[in-house]
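Reviewers of the previous submission asked for a worked example of the structure-prediction workflow described in the proposal, so we include one complete record here. The input consisted solely of the amino acid sequence. No template or homolog information was supplied to the procedure at any stage.
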Amino acid sequence: MNKKAFIVDDDPNILELFRHILEKENLEVFTALDGNDAIKKIPEAKPDIIILDLMLPKQGGFEVLKSLQQNENTETIPVIIVTGKFRDGTTYDFVKSQPNVKDFFSKPINPSVFALSVKKILGGYDV
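From that input alone, the workflow returned the following structure tokens.
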């Protein structure tokens, strides 16, 4: 059975790029374009990893992350944060200090490095 990834990004082009990378790695992919949709869909999808943009409409990435941490069904799912608007070292340190955040990427991403990070976090899977 394939592992599942959930991508949350409001840019359809970025969403499709991540989808392509992850499907190429044999992951089943679920998506949401905003924070509210993500909070509704993630518990149903039961993903093994979440790719979360920080800058989202309706509820931002920080709010989604906090919501995931407060739900016993999603609190331990590893999260990779991606952002097109890198704030500063303090923001980076705060985000990386969250217990379920396993990696942090600034856009544009390097697809190979991103795929390797996903593999490492998931502990390897059939390719």
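The helical segments are 12-24, 35-45, 61-69, 89-96, 111-122. We consider this example representative of the routine output the project will generate in years two and three.
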